[in-house]
Write a structure and sequence with these properties.
single chain, two-stranded antiparallel sheet, 6 helices, 46% helix, binds zinc ion
Length: 195
């Protein structure tokens, strides 16, 4: 039995129109699939992906064209990758060029005071004078304890830990220990920077 498409009776023309209709249907279904696959790479919300796919199914071609106009311009992978890159760059920047927490001036990790606003950034070790991280319990450079021991008491206690040298000189006479007198500390402020 012959299928008369659009009431066309001519056999050849009828077949041509059938093939054309079949092509259109195939392209339509392919566009529905493409819309679904593309939306999945660009949209996170499964609800929106379903809406886009449904629109291209209900409104052949028109739905897909509208989706192409309103779809997000970027793939989700690219968005995530860029977010990661930005975070990594910020972390690198933070590590390379720390800024003064008070005025934002570019400082180095070893600075005790900000050269721009003159505020104290870190406390110096009472024994060796090197900058201390607020989280440290001891000075990693000279092994002295931080905070609790007053410098004078610390110096009195030192000879007990260090044996007298061969010449009968105690460690207190030693010039290397003499250098360990606490540096002038200036204004004392609890370290507020956690870095
Ligand atoms: Zn500053
Ligand atoms: Zn020290």
């Amino acid at each position: 039995m012959r299928l008369a498409v659009f009431g066309i009776e001519n056999d050849g023309l009828n077949r041509a129109v059938s093939v054309l209709l079949l092509c259109i249907v195939v392209i339509w279904l392919a566009l529905v699939w493409w819309t679904y696959a593309d939306a999945r790479r660009r949209i996170e919300d499964p609800m929106l992906i379903g809406c886009a796919t449904l629109a291209s199914l209900i409104f052949p071609f028109i739905g897909t064209i509208v989706y192409m106009i309103v779809r997000p311009p970027e793939y989700l992978d690219d968005v995530r990758e860029r977010a990661l890159e930005i975070a990594a760059a910020q972390a690198r920047l933070q590590e390379l060029d720390p800024a003064c927490p008070y005025c934002g001036f570019e400082i180095e990790k070893t600075f005790l005071r900000c050269p721009s606003c003159l505020r104290r950034l870190k406390e110096p070790c009472r024994t060796c004078g090197r900058p201390l991280d607020p989280r440290w319990k001891i000075c990693p450079y000279c092994e002295s304890e931080i905070g609790q021991v007053a410098p004078s008491a610390q110096q009195r206690r030192r000879p007990r830990r260090q044996p007298t040298t061969a010449g009968g000189r105690t460690a207190i006479d030693d010039p290397t220990i003499a250098r360990a007198a606490p540096p002038p500390t200036g204004e004392r402020r609890p370290p507020s920077r956690d870095s």
